[in-house]
């Protein structure tokens, strides 16, 4: 089965999952040659080890709490907060409270 990605002009619901968060999975919402948007779902205590993205990224916390470690600092993000990082900046993510966040990657500069 092919993964559905949003088409141009399609509305995508990114509201907090609330009670559905525990059963939700990480999902790529849209992907083009130049842009990718992923709704990442993480359980408390989980981590994404240090890595680099090929392009600039924006991390926007939708619910819960995460900590992004980059540029020598830990930055805590809660619902409504976002963080921008330049391309190829090493970073890691730690989930403090069950969370979902949007990860936007600019793939071609």
Low-confidence parts lasting 5 or more residues at pLDDT below 50?
A: none
Identify the CATH architecture: Sandwich
Structural class, by secondary structure, is mainly beta
- Count of DSSP strands: 7
- Total number of distinct structural domains: 1
Order of helices and strands: EEEEEEE
What is the approximate shape?
globular
**CATH domain class:** Mainly Beta
Describe the largest sheet: 7 strands, antiparallel
Strand content: over 45%
Quickly count the helices.
0
Strand and helix map with partners:
Elements: E1 27-31, E2 35-42, E3 47-51, E4 57-70, E5 73-78, E6 82-85, E7 91-106
Antiparallel strand pairs: 1-2, 2-7, 3-7, 4-5, 4-6, 4-7
Structural features, described:
The chain is mainly beta and 109 residues long. Helix content is 0%, strand content 53%. β1 and β2 form a beta hairpin. It is globular, with a radius of gyration of 14 Å. The protein starts with 26 loop residues before the first strand and ends with a strand. The relative contact order is 0.29. The mean pLDDT is 95.
Give structural attributes.
about 110 residues; mainly beta; Jelly Rolls; seven-stranded antiparallel beta sheet
Question: Summary?
Answer:
By secondary structure, the chain is mainly β. The protein has no helices and 7 strands.
């Amino acid at each position: 089965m092919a993964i559905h990605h949003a088409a141009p002009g399609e509305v995508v619901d990114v509201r907090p999952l609330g009670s559905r968060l525990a059963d939700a999975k990480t999902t790529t919402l849209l992907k083009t040659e130049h842009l990718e948007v992923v709704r990442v779902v993480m359980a408390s205590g989980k981590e994404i080890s240090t890595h680099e993205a090929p392009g600039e990224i924006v991390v926007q916390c939708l619910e819960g709490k995460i900590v992004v470690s980059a540029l020598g600092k830990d930055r805590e993000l809660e619902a409504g907060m976002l963080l921008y990082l330049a391309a190829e900046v090493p970073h890691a993510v730690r989930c403090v409270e069950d969370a979902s966040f949007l990860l936007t990657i600019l793939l071609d500069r």
